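During the reporting period the student researcher (J.K.) took over the structure-prediction task from the postdoctoral fellow and processed the backlog of single-chain submissions. One of the processed entries is reproduced below for the supervisory committee.
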Amino acid sequence: MFRLHGFAEGLCSVALASGVAVPASAQELKRTELSLMDLTGVEGKEVVVSLLEAPPGSTSVRHFHYGDEVFYVLEGAMVQIPGQEPQARVTGSVGNNKREVPHAGYKVIGEKPLKLLSVYIVDKGKPLQVEVK
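J.K. obtained the following structure tokens:
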């Protein structure tokens, strides 16, 4: 995982506030950090807004966050977790991933890229994402 402030690679990458994206893996999975700010009124928490762009054939490694993630599917695609049937991530759908619960581990299949807008409320100073082996 990449984070502003130099945290290590995990699922993908984030960009500096300038909007320059950094590739996260050989599969060209890309995360661009759009905003990073302290959560008002709550000590030790921050809000991160990011855009995930996952082209066909890219893989999102299984990971968790030190906080909650809410995501909105900007552009839907088919994804497949090893050993499971393919499933659609439908444009316009919303989902959430709870604190420290592993998720993802899917490959984008078919012809369409997957694009997600995510908002995280996470512990400040910890990595945004931690890969789960």
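The committee noted the following: DSSP finds no helices and twelve strands in the chain.
J.K. will present the remaining backlog at the next meeting.
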